[in-house]
Automatic annotation (TrEMBL):
Gene3D superfamilies: Tetracycline Repressor, domain 2. SUPFAM superfamilies: Homeodomain-like, Tetracyclin repressor-like, C-terminal domain. Signal peptide: none annotated. Residues 28-47 bind DNA. Coiled coil: none annotated. It comes from the Bacteria. One of its GO terms (molecular function) is DNA binding. This is Transcriptional regulator, TetR family.
Length: 194
């Protein structure tokens, strides 16, 4: 017999995928339960706050997963531009594997979250976490602290916008173009190379 935590995690994982692909409003609790294979009574047992609690936890989990991916890619890459290429390639693979349904794990919900402060804050926390990770990396590579934050925001906004365009067009070109534009911005040529 599966443990209770297995059921909880299955529900969270299923909700995360559905919120990513369909958004908050279009994702119903019955669909989450059906697709996760969880018994009806388990939802409110594990998530007494209902759909809002489930969404908040699923979004936080998705945000943390992408944070770890960012940290790993940034740590393993020889240059910041290489890390951006790795991140873009990961996002592109997920788009293709999902037939362009799986964009950013937060964006679909973030776009409709203006009326729910709890969910809006959870989405904002994820975006700010990603910005901090990128900014810290840039600062560690010699970008002045006062420039690292705005540059991190630019990187994130560029990738996020490119991901939305790629998903909408069912074409990876916007992601590839964004990576190409970001490369010289992140790792400018030295004066000897220029």
């Amino acid at each position: 017999m599966p443990k209770r935590t297995d059921t909880r995690q299955r529900v969270l994982d299923t909700a995360a995928v559905l919120f990513q692909q369909q958004g908050y409003e279009a994702t119903g609790l019955n669909q989450i339960l059906t697709e996760s294979g969880a018994p009806k009574g388990s939802l409110y047992f594990h998530f007494p706050g209902g759909k809002e609690q489930l969404a908040t936890e699923a979004l936080a989990m998705s945000g943390a997963r992408l944070s770890r991916r960012l940290e790993d890619d940034l740590r393993q890459a020889a240059t910041t531009a290489e890390a951006v290429d790795a991140i873009v390639n990961h996002l592109a693979e997920r788009l293709v594997e999902s037939d362009y349904a799986a964009g950013c794990p937060i964006a679909t919900v973030a776009l409709e979250a203006t009326g729910n402060e709890t969910i809006r804050r959870t989405c904002d926390d994820a975006y700010r976490s990603w910005e901090r990770i990128i900014a810290d990396h840039l600062a560690s590579r010699g970008v002045p602290q006062e420039n690292a934050g705005p540059l991190a925001t630019t990187v994130l906004a560029t990738i996020e916008g490119a991901l939305l365009l790629a998903k909408t067009r069912k074409d990876l070109a916007p992601l590839r173009d964004a990576a190409a534009v970001l490369r010289p911005l992140l790792d400018p040529p030295s004066p000897q190379q220029a």
